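re: that chain from earlier
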Amino acid sequence: MRISGNVWIVDDDRSIRWVLEKALSQAGLETQSFDNADDVLRRLGRDCPDAIISDIRMPGTDGLQMLDKVQAEHPDLPIIIMTAHSDLESAVASYQGGAFEYLPKPFDVDEAVALVQRAVAHAHEQQQEVAEQVMGRATEIIGEAPAMQEVFRAIGRLSQSNITVLINGESGTGKELVAHALHKHSPRASRPFIPLNMAAIPKDLIESELFGHEKGAFTGAAAARRGRFEQADGGTLFLDEIGDMPADTQTRLLRVLADGEFYRVGGHTPVKVDVRIIAATHQNLEKLVADGRFREDLFHRLNVIRIHIPKLSDRREDIPRLAQHFLATSAKELNVEPKVLKADTEKFMCHLPWQGNVRQLENTCRWLTVMASGREVLIEDLPPELLEQQDQGTTVSSNWEQALRLWTDQQLGCGRQGILDEAVPAFERIMIETALKHTAGRRRDAAQLLGWGRNTLTRKIKELGMDGGNEQDDDE
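^ sequence. v structure.
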């Protein structure tokens, strides 16, 4: 079976490098050669191969020293150590250092190729295991709030689809978790899920990251490199913070979505891929389009199905379960007993603003796992910044009554009469709009939050002139 992968060859003997380059290339493997270990260690800071085959005796840092340093940072990276000194000491030292295999010189080229292919296959297995572990954690989305149930329904409806999806939501709401879930429950579940955050990559490197590059395409491109599109072939490419994508990259992405092919940077041969796109943003793409900062045609390509992720303050009923989950996860990671929130602490946390959304709650639970002194978490155990936020929130919460009194006093002072006819509808309209926002427009759930029956809510909406024909079907 032909195996693809990227292999680094390290040897100060140019003839050995040449032989391995030719043999491995003929076997379908990409190669990059180094004549010393120090260059390898520097390159590992920004790139990583599937396997390394290295000589043991070289000027400067030798193969065993390199092995130690690589293993410390990349313990799953298979390294084959080869040497002309076929002695027991070298072999034992190689295995003790964590080498994948020991290859004495002179070697049979076919055997060397087979060994490298085995190392690459092992690397792929390790990568798949890690991906499955990450997937197992990432797809555990917790949410009983009506707004989150709407998200779950959308994931379910799309479970047999390859359709493009655009995810909207504030930072920290869990957009990547939803993207993971869409992938896991799709026909592409067994294929790669490749995430890429547009905001985290320098603009001059985005095209290389997405589309890959050919050897010599730019300074430092010493070897050809597959981009994220090729890595995601057959699977899903998750483009996070799509609103930060540069204009010229938007144009190239639009062509890929239209044609299903692209050129590597510096390349002249089209590369065909079969990739599902899931994009996400915390920005208002319609406004970016109106401002000329995002291509309208690309927006329509991406905006086939849109899923909105509610902020944590719009799903407060989920906070206790989320906190319990994060406290248990943190305790497991640190091998300590899980903390438990006292009832008043849990209630207190449910009323915090949580501007950082679920991510802020998760980080808070990690902090509590380490810093809270007892097993039961008291209100005073919470981080100081959260206690300050609650003080501010309490002030705002209590001031609405004071503001109402002030407004009433002003209206009556001006000689106004019948002010309840103005105040009550305004009060009800605000309450109804907010309840519908919390339930993603589902009237039955909104009525329950308000303490009304569904028919009462429907009547009120009509009386207030709020019926825009956008009622959600509660029987979906």
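The chain has four domains: 6-133, 146-310, 313-387, 418-463.
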